[in-house]
Fold these 2 entries.
Entry 1:
Amino acid sequence: MKERNDSRGVTDAGSPLRPRLFLFCVCAFAAIGLASDANAQSMREYTASRPYRGERGMTVQLEFAAGELRLMPAAPGTLYRMESRYDSERYAPRSEYHASSRALELGLKSEGKGGIRVTNSKQLDQQATVWLSPEVELGLALSLGASESRIDLGGLRLRDLKLEVGGSRTRLSFSRPGVGSCREAVVEVGAGELEVDRFANSGCSRLRLNGGVGVVSLDLGGQPESDLAAEITMTMGRLTLKLPKGAGVRLTLDRFFASFSPAGFSRQGEQFVTPDYSTARRKIDLRVASSVGAVKVEWY
């Protein structure tokens, strides 16, 4: 839909600059109108989907270059679905499903054309919503560029998870327990903000998180009582660990110019341990390396 631009100029009838000013206004508004129309014309809509046909497993590679992304479980009977609105001059939608290998490639990829440098997701009115089936075991790999993303993997059957985050704001949540057996989750954060909510619901027994420059909030709570081992590295930034009360936590901290308040822990050599670690029903083993920044613990 093209945007409509209405302009009316009012000038002093006695001003000798009236003709020039009027011409300038006409040209300026014409240029704005053309730019708006060109932008509207470059935006396209794209939808792709496939019904569930008894597949037991699937690998998914989702690449989203810029804009606003939503990812969530699909309704019964749907293997996957993507609805998107994208800038056709600089980006292209991708949807390829290989039935023989049970491999799916989705997303919006850059076409490599110049003309704009995306430093903020608000610069592009691109949007995509993706639904994935909770009925199949998923090997999920996500690559996010300059985006604002809300990803809810609650209830999915995860086999493994890899998330790469560029200059973006990402909220990764597990709103309800998954039904799979996840081997490992690997998260790479270049720059930006990452919030992880109720990670224990993922079912993953191991977590590796590498953070560059940014802010990371990691909630390790959730319903499952399985143990968790996590290795976290922060180069420069701030890390907040949200830990559930009642879990036995052992924290090994390797820090250099990083502040840390050991509330709720007692020190045992190079480790910080909660008083009930040896008898706790659920154990969380954390190894955190932070160069410059702060490590904060919140109990809930």
Note: The chain is about 10% helix and 55% strand.
Entry 2:
Amino acid sequence: MINAGKETVTLVPGASVFDSSESFGMIRGGHVDVSILGAMEVSANGDLVSCLASVKGPANPQANFMIPGKLVKGMGGAMDLVSNPDKTKIIVVTDHVDKYGKSKIKQQCDLPLTGVRVITRIITDLAVFDVDRVNGGLTLIELAEGVELDEVKEKTSAEFKVAETLGSF
């Protein structure tokens, strides 16, 4: 058995599996309620640059299957995971900043997009944002324990609103 990261895995009692083409059919068909994935960048409009950039083609001639300067094992299935955002809620879970301290939450993504206006919620190590993917815009709804609003403002490149009642996690 091999997982999506092309790593060998062992099944535990009670596990079940199905073919990847079946799983992508379920996602594309809107038969999955929620899809959770990581990201290199997200925008205030709900655009996504997944860990593996989108497919090169007429609509996106600069895109490729590589993270700039890094070898990637395959193009992955992120485009399938975000292909039906009207039926499948798309949640991104990521670090708030990259390893260089640059915000991953941007007004507009810099890298080739995996999906346009697909994200519903962004969860980072610092905060949780709801995304209005129809009209564009972020609303901060939760802060991590011990994190101050000023830190989130400093580390977020995108503009955002703050919910009237700010929760914590």
Note: Helices lie at 20-28, 78-81, 149-154.
